[in-house]
Amino acid sequence: MVAKLLDGKELSKEIRNKLEQRVKILKEKGIIPKLVVILVGEDEASKVYVRNKHRAAEKVGIKTIDIKFPKNITEKELLLHIKKYNEDNSVHGILVQLPLPKQISEEKITCAIEPEKDVDGFHPVNIGHLFMNNPHSLPCTPHGIMQFFEKYKLPIAGKNVVIVGRSNIVGRPMAAMMLNNDATVTVTHSKTKNLSEFTRQADILIAAVGRASFIKKEDVKPGAVVIDVGMNRNGEGKLVGDVEQKGVAEVASYLTPVPGGVGPMTIAMLMEQTVKFAERSVQIVNRKVSNS
Ligand SMILES: NC(=O)C1=CN([C@@H]2O[C@H](COP(=O)(O)OP(=O)(O)OC[C@H]3O[C@@H](n4cnc5c(N)ncnc54)[C@H](OP(=O)(O)O)[C@@H]3O)[C@@H](O)[C@H]2O)C=CC1
Ligand SMILES: Nc1nc(=O)c2c([nH]1)NC[C@@H]1CN(c3ccc(C(=O)N[C@@H](CCC(=O)O)C(=O)O)cc3)C=[N+]21
Q1: Measuring from atom 21 of ligand 2, which residue has the nearest CA?
Q2: Active site residues
Q3: What is the pLDDT of residues 98-119, one digit of tens each?
Q4: Is 247's C-beta closer than 6 angstroms to any atom of ligand 2?
Q5: Which residues are recorded as binding NADP(+) (predicted)?
Q6: What span, in angstroms and rounded, lies between the C-alpha atoms of 182 and 121?
Q7: Quick one: which of 23, 192, 213, 284 has the fewest CB in 10 Å?
Q8: Binding site membership for NADP(+): which residues?
Q9: Atom of ligand 2 nearest to the CA of 52
Q10: Does residue 167's CB lie within 6 angstroms of at least one atom of ligand 2?
Q11: Which of 48, 140, 170, 228 to mutate to test the pocket of ligand 1 (most atoms within 8 A of CB)?
């Protein structure tokens, strides 16, 4: 078997084109969707993200404001900046790039962002809604992954889904989304014993580990759908996934490439969420006007 590649570049372009129309309508109403992205210090994956996100936003017509802080910024100072953007009515979305330096609590920062502006869907309130199968704002990476299943009509209900990795930004919300779509979900991590025994049972295998070419051909059930979330630099500085792509492509039915797979979809979902929040802000204003 030679796996079909799930083209995230193409699908994200399709999504962005639809968004462009929605942004046009908003602009006619005098609203420009605005996203604030806060980057603290230097993180390789985050830098790639900032660059690509900026390009995508420009194409769609979203205004993004990139704020960079040195890695020694205090938690208190960062919280003050978040408060300022929470209170600014022209800002529809706020994103703080993770990971953060050690002196700053990621939990505190995540909780400080207004849930209505939480484009990442990381706030406990939004995570709670997701786990109750009534999502308000969805984490962009797993949400982007779900788009592949929809676009390519890949069934989820009743399938064995195995996720490698349990981070708050990928593994855990991915598990909730797959469960909401009636899959049987297994979440594995660094303490999992005999990992390969689990991965080989997967009809759908999702690798979010952060280790270059970690999942090999022999870890994959023939015919499985394999999603590679990894974004690692190899020895030559080349971007590689968590899946050993060449070998796995020989056994999987579908596979997301790196680059050009999950990454562009994450960005497309971030754009969509920002536009959704901007649209919601118009509805809130309309409601206030009709009530007065
Ligand atoms: N394409 C995209 O849009 C995005 C890509 N990424 C990329 O995806 C990857 C994962 O990101 P993220 O979830 O943030 O990473 P984290 O480092 O937060 O989490 C990694 C997870 O993998 C688990 N893990 C580590 N080593 C092993 C092992 N040997 N066996 C089994 N499990 C293991 C860890 O287990 P434990 O919990 O026990 O420590 C942890 O749960 C990275 O390469 C990142 O750059 C991330 C976000 C978006
Ligand atoms: N609060 C927060 N939310 C995140 O969603 C978040 C984060 N912090 N921190 C960092 C990780 C990483 N991440 C990426 C998303 C897209 C690409 C991406 O565009 N990848 C291209 C790379 C192409 C190139 O080389 O330029 C691709 O896969 O094709 C990369 C990385 C989001 N993350």
Answers
A1: 263
A2: 53, 97, 120
A3: 999 999 999 999 999 999 999 9
A4: no
A5: 165-167
A6: 21
A7: 284
A8: 165-167
A9: 19
A10: no
A11: 170
How many Å lie between the centroid of ligand 2 and the Cα of residue 133? 26
All structural domains of the chain: 30-114 (3.40.50.10860), 140-262 (3.40.50.720)
Query: Which residue is associated with the tokens 């910024």?
Result: 73
What's the predicted TM-score (pTM) here? 0.96
**What one-character-per-residue DSSP string does 108-155 give?**
HHHHHS-GGGBTT--SHHHHHHHHTT--SS--HHHHHHHHHHHHTT--
| Euclidean distance between CA atoms 105 and 121, whole angstroms | 17
Burial of residue 169, with CB atoms counted within 10 A of its CB: 0-12 exposed, 13-18 middle, 19 or more buried: buried
Residue-wise pLDDT tens digits, 154-203 = 999 999 999 999 999 999 999 999 999 999 999 999 999 999 999 999 99
Asked if the interface predicted TM-score (ipTM) of this complex is over 0.90, the answer is yes
